[in-house]
Amino acid sequence: MKVLFNVNHPAKVHLFKNVIKILQENDINVFLTVIDKEVTSELVKNFAEENDIKYKIIGKNLGNIFKKAMNVPKIEYELLKISENFKPNLFVGGCDDLYVSHVAKLVRRPSFIFDTNENAKLLHILTFPFATKIFTPCCYETNLGNKQIRYNGYHELAYLHPNYFTPNSEILDELNLSKNDNIIILRLVAWNAIHDVGEKGISQENLKKYIHKLEDFGEVLITSETKLNNDLEKYKLKIKPEKLHDLLYYSTLYIGEGATTASECAILGTHAIYTNTIKLGYLNELEKKYNLVYNITNPKNMHIKALNKSLELLENKNLRNEGKKKQKKLLNDKIDVTKYIVNVIENYETLVEK
After folding, report:
1. pTM of the entire structure?
2. CA-CA-CA-CA torsion sign (162, 25, 43, 34)
3. 57/114 same-domain check
4. Mean pLDDT per segment of 10 residues, for the chain of length 354 residues?
5. What are phi and psi of 316, to 5 degrees?
């Protein structure tokens, strides 16, 4: 059996990395194609070299929508060439992977798409009609019809479940911090994805207005997809991308526009304030059911509400311990998503026939 995975975002490298390792251990032939975005190619390079994974970079996730659209034929042509040589039995992609669904349809092979983003309606129109099956968390708030298969988990559990992730405290030494320090992570996104059009978060100007108040409670660090203003540059986090999850585990609070990072924090038992007008089912569940994420999505008062909520949470001296207790409940409720994905891939023929 041969399986071709495509990744177009750093989070998708994490989503599939343990799946790929297990499949290879089970004598399934795997090939990984990569569309570079942020640190995607660096993550893939490190992972592939450590685990002897065959991969190829087939394109780059370009800035604006026009460039993205013009780049689709080139990426799909590269993916088609690889598929003609590799001859996969199954194609697998993450959120909105139109490339996988198109090329798989063209070569008459099934494709499985793992999606979490209800908001990406245009990409869904371009992707879902060509996909064979679409896997979503149970909390996904859109009914996709007969192709949809729901499971009781989150993408982030595929790599942050304790079965696969153990935090390494060496990151604290690297940053001259300790387990007793309050660490506050801020995140800014680039707003260049198709589903980001018209959406908003907290501007750098608003961050400047209250960042000094956060510093009263601990060490403030910023991770950003976009260039920071000069006065924020001193807060920029400078670590290897594969170490970020270690830092998130030991952090006290996350405030940011990145949905994936907010969910990662919740699964690691770190409280997160999500500041983005995009509303997502899994973040809604993480707030309502586990009280680990706080969704602040109204652009009119976003920066004020985010600041007030941040200060309210940071006043709680036991915040980090409370987060780890909530994490235990979450982990008891949810499945091992890596095992689930391995199972559906190894039994793909049964699912395709349905």
Report:
1. 0.91
2. negative
3. yes
4. 94 95 96 89 90 92 73 93 97 93 97 94 92 97 96 97 97 96 88 43 72 92 84 89 94 94 97 94 97 93 90 96 97 98 96 83
5. -80, 110
Whole-number pLDDT of residue 199 = 43
Asked whether 96 and 127 are in contact (CB, 8 A), the reply is yes
Together in a domain, 59 and 111: yes
3 state DSSP class of 293: strand
CB 171 within 8 A of CB 246: yes
CA distances from 304 to 210, 258, 275, 311 (A): 9, 18, 11, 11
Task: Work out the angle at residue 152's Cα, subtended by the Cα atoms of residues 150 and 154, and round it to the nearest 5 degrees.
Answer: 95
CATH number, residue 180: 3.40.50.2000
Tokens of 262: 């907010």
- Region for residue 6 given its phi and psi (left: phi exceeds 0; alpha: psi -120 to 50; beta: otherwise): beta
Q: Does 40 fall in a domain? A: yes
Of 120, 263, 295, nearest to 197 by C-alpha is: 120
Phi-psi sector, 302: left (phi>0), alpha (psi -120 to 50), beta? alpha
Query: DSSP readout, 113-175?
Result: EE---TT-HHHHHHHGGG-SEEEEETT--S--GGGEEEESS-TTHHHHSTTT----THHHHHT
- Cα distance between residue 172 and residue 181, in whole Å: 9
Total tally of structural domains belonging to the chain: 2
**What pLDDT is attached to residue 118?**
93
Considering the domain architecture, whether residues 138 and 176 belong to the same structural domain is answered as no
Could you list the residue range(s) of the whole structural domain that residue 345 is in? 2-153+335-353
Q: Distances from the Cα of 80 to the Cαs of 109, 131, 262, 302, in angstroms?
A: 12, 16, 35, 44
In degrees and rounded to multiples of 5, residue 183 shows phi and psi of: -115, 125
**pLDDT for position 170:** 97
Please indicate, yes or no, whether residues 297 and 308 belong to a single structural domain of this protein.
yes
What is the C-alpha separation between 96 and 123, in angstroms, rounded?
Answer: 6
